[in-house]
Amino acid sequence: MKPSRRSLAVAMGLCFALSEPSLGFDRNEPVAPLPEIDRLDAGKVALGQSLFFDPILSSDNQMSCASCHDPAAGGTMRTPRPTGKVDGKPLFNVPTIFNVANNHMFGWRGSLRSLVEQNEKVLLDPNLMGAQWDDLVSKLDGSKGYGDAFREAYGSPPTREAVLDALGAYEISLRTPGAPFDRYMRGDLAALTPQQIEGYGLFKDYGCASCHQGSNIGGNMSQRLGIFNDNNRDFRESPVDVATDQDEERRPFRVPSLRNVAKTAPYFHDGRTPDLTEAVSQMGLLQLGRYLSPGDIAALRAFLESLTGNVPNVPQPRSKRRDR
C-alpha cells in the first residue's frame, strides 16, 4: 500500500509542504519559479560571450569555456566526463552552465562560493585551461580586438578582475525562463499535464525537495551519494572516485540543479547514467531507500521534463583576436 503523504513525511523526518501542488506560487512551496535578474551591462555581456567561446583563454589556445559548457548541448557536454590535460585522469561530469547564477555553491564538491572563484579555478587549473594571469592579460592586450573591447567596457586594458567580471556577466545572462513548471507556479493552470502535477506531488512526498529546492531546484547544499543502499559499491565507486580520492569522509557532493535536467544527460558526478528514467530509479534507491514503481518513475520523469525552459539563442561570436 502506498504510504500517505503525512505518514511518509513523519517517518523520514522531513520538513516540506504537505499540501496539494500549488495553483499559483506559494512561498511555502519548497521550490520557486526562476526569478528575474537585474539588468546587465550589454557591453560586458558581449565581451564575456566572446571570451567564453574563445580558446585564447587557455594556455595552449586549444580550449574555450564552451568546449565543455556548450550552450547547444544543454550548457554541458554529451560525454560522461573529460580527462585532465596533464595527468590524463578522469574529471567530474560537466555541470550545465545555464542558470548558474542561481547556485549558492559551485563545483561538484561545493567548495567554491562564487562565479569569480569558479571561473578563476577553471582558468588556472593545469588539467583544464592552464592559464597564468600575467600571460593571459598580456595575450589579450596584445590583441587589438580584445584590447579595444576591454578599454571600451571597463575603461582600462585587460585585467584579472575585468576578465572574471566579463565572464561572470555573460554566464549570468545564460538563463532558461519559461519552463512549464514556472508558468504553473505563477498561476497558469494549463501549463502542466496531470501526470506532471502528480510527479511534483511525489517529488515533495518522497523527500526529493528536501535537497532539490529553491529557484534552481538544487545547487545550494551538499549531500552524500548513497544515504541508503550504501553497500552498493558497484554504484558508488567509479574511476572518478578513485582518481579524486573520494573516500567516505569526502564523498558529499553539491546537489545539482534539476533545471533542464531532461536535456543534460549523462547524469551524476561521474556521468555514469545516460538515461533520465534510470537516474530517477537509482536516486530512489540510493537517496530514499525505495524501489520506485514504474508509474511513480514515469510521473517523476514527466515532472522533471516540465523544468525545461527556453534555451537562450547563443550564436557563436567571431573572435575579437586581431594582431596589432
Automatic annotation (TrEMBL):
Q: Please state every residue range assigned to the domain named Cytochrome c.
A: 43-144, 194-308
Report one GO cellular component: periplasmic space
Q: Which UniProt keywords apply?
A: Heme, Iron, Metal-binding, Oxidoreductase, Periplasm, Peroxidase, Plasmid, Signal
Q: Which domain of life is it from?
A: Bacteria
Cofactor: record remark: Binds 2 heme groups.
Which Gene3D superfamilies does the entry link to? Cytochrome c-like domain
Name the SUPFAM superfamilies on file.
Answer: Cytochrome c (SSF46626)
What protein name does the entry list? Cytochrome-c peroxidase protein
